[in-house]
Design the sequence.
């Protein structure tokens, strides 16, 4: 791998499917990309066991292996991959500045952001333990629902994501139990109606999760009705948490346009941010799709946009 000279043509922040794809495209276009990997190299897929919906892996692949493949492909085209975490940026000048681990300052003509997002968890001890064992705790129905065909599952949450996950799972599972902490849902009306009109979804109102039961795999979920204080166990084999995601965008506050949750806002049908030469890819700017394949697609878009931007500026 070669050491690039500053200011770099392209600096990629973050290393999930979006970042690695941006690196592959940027490197093949001779942009000599430098990548700062971030806190969790490989991103959310490092916590994912079986990926069966990424084209090109007919037998499926585990998330960390897939990210090692992506990384190897980016490295093969001479991406300069560096460990470290971007803590601060300065996008005021024509050359953009980025600080790694609060210390090292890097300069680049173009920046591709692929810092991703993280699913929120309830934080229960057994939820996290069984999640880490790959034993039936998930934050992605599209990724993992297939493994629960014909079984009963719980979905926690009452926003659009939870409603979508529940209706998706209802097509595969015998029954879906939605655990909703209030007596109403936050989801849009149309999604609420869809949930209510799905026969095999049961909504448990005013209900909170107390514990996830099971040694290595989910065997049930203990809940409490927060009005009556009555505890009960829902007999399920899957536990899907859909209480929101947090985009990793704190370091861009004040520089880039973002919505109330922190998702970066890009111009329609492009990866352009509100700052010239700064491009957005992956889950950091996507609260709707959040799939590895869509992240990879937007990584490609960002690299192509960066390439055109640099060409227009005459930076070769
Ligand atoms: P939201 O923040 O909208 O909803 C989170 C849900 O989780 C709420 O119902 C909340 O309950 C519940 N919740 C939060 N913490 C806990 C907890 N500790 N225990 C139990 N329940 C909890 O997140 P979403 O991911 O659903 O949506 C994020 C954004 O993305 C929204 O703007 C949404 O509209 C959008 N979106 C759009 C989609 C689309 O257009 N197709 C698809 C998915 C999302 P409470 O209501 O009581 O606070």
Sequence:
């Amino acid at each position: 791998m070669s050491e690039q000279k500053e200011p770099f043509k392209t600096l990629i922040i973050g290393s999930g499917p979006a970042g690695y794809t941006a690196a592959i495209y940027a490197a093949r276009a001779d942009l000599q990309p430098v990548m700062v990997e971030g806190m969790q190299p490989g991103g959310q897929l490092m916590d994912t066991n079986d990926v069966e919906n990424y084209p090109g892996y007919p037998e499926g692949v585990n998330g960390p292996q897939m990210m090692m493949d992506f990384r190897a492909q980016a490295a093969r085209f001479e991406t300069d991959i560096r460990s470290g975490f971007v803590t601060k940026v300065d996008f005021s000048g024509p050359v953009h500045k980025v600080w790694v681990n609060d210390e090292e300052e890097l300069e680049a003509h173009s920046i591709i952001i692929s810092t991703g997002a993280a699913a929120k968890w309830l934080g229960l001890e057994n939820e996290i333990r069984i999640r880490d064992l790959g034993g039936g705790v998930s934050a992605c129905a599209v990724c993992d629902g297939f493994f629960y065909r014909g079984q009963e599952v719980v979905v926690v949450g009452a926003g659009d994501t939870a409603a979508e996950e529940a209706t998706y799972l209802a097509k595969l599972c015998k029954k879906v139990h939605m655990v909703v902490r209030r007596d109403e849902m936050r989801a849009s009306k149309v999604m609420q109606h869809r949930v209510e009109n799905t026969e095999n979804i049961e909504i448990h109102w005013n209900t909170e999760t107390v514990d996830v039961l099971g040694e290595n795999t989910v065997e049930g979920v203990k809940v409490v009705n927060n009005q009556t204080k009555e505890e009960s166990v829902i007999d399920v084999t899957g536990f899907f948490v859909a209480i929101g995601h947090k985009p990793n965008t704190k370091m861009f506050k004040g520089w880039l346009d973002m919505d109330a949750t922190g998702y970066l806002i890009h111009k329609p049908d492009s990866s352009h941010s509100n700052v010239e030469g700064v491009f957005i890819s992956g889950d950091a700017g996507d609260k709707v799709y959040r799939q590895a394949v869509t992240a990879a697609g937007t990584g490609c878009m960002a690299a192509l946009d960066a390439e055109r931007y640099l060409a227009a500026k005459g930076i070769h």
